[in-house]
């Protein structure tokens, strides 16, 4: 039975905190998941990462592992400290595994299942929790304000009784987008992942929200930004313009003497936050020149230039 350095497997320092360990595991799980990875030995690397995370995510397990770690080297035969002889094996002599995990893992933690009776023997549960499924879900900005459900279709891995991946099935759900959802937010749907093995609980489905690019609006937190094209005389003289929002149009009064690049704001026309309130719609003014001008128009511009006596680079 070879020793496994779980910190080395995850690529973290032994002093790493829980957040760092979890992030390292998630990165490796995405990279080596057998369903998507084309890396060599992806399945075995995925199992190693899962085993390492299982050993280190619990404070109790991690403390026990840390006590043993000083007695072994990664990939080398493990003897353990004097009198150890596989404390977790519970009479199995280290020859049993826990789910898909190695003999080494079982030799330490084999008695920690729900069947442990405290009397030196273990009744190993045959049930194993199903795998979690994670997917990105594209959401239109308009959908964040709607109360309707969104259909989600995803692949769910299927495993045989030995825990081997045998196929994928397609599953569809109607999901209601929570009010105030944000880009990158991770939503958990309990029990909607892969089915459990041997009576174990189903895994969970995790949806990572990604806002779909909008043709008119940019997103800044709970606020939206839209660029409003205006003729130079509309900036100079003022104008009332219909401006699109996510729920229709509003009339915006542009004051006379407004500047190119200036921002105006409309309260309550942004995205919704967790409190149910909506942010601002920022309207950025943009001067747009006519593409062509005839002689008469050019003469008017020249007259304006003389009468305005304006030097835009006075303080340049």
From TrEMBL:
Domain of life per record: Bacteria
Biased composition (Gly residues): 83-96
Gene Ontology cellular-component terms listed: cytoplasm
Residue spans of biased composition, Basic and acidic residues class: 121-130
Annotated ranges, domain J: 5-69
The entry's keywords: Chaperone, Cytoplasm, DNA-binding
GO molecular function: DNA binding; unfolded protein binding
Compositionally skewed regions (Low complexity) per UniProt: 73-82
PANTHER family: DNAJ HOMOLOG 1, MITOCHONDRIAL-RELATED
Protein name: Curved DNA-binding protein
Gene: cbpA
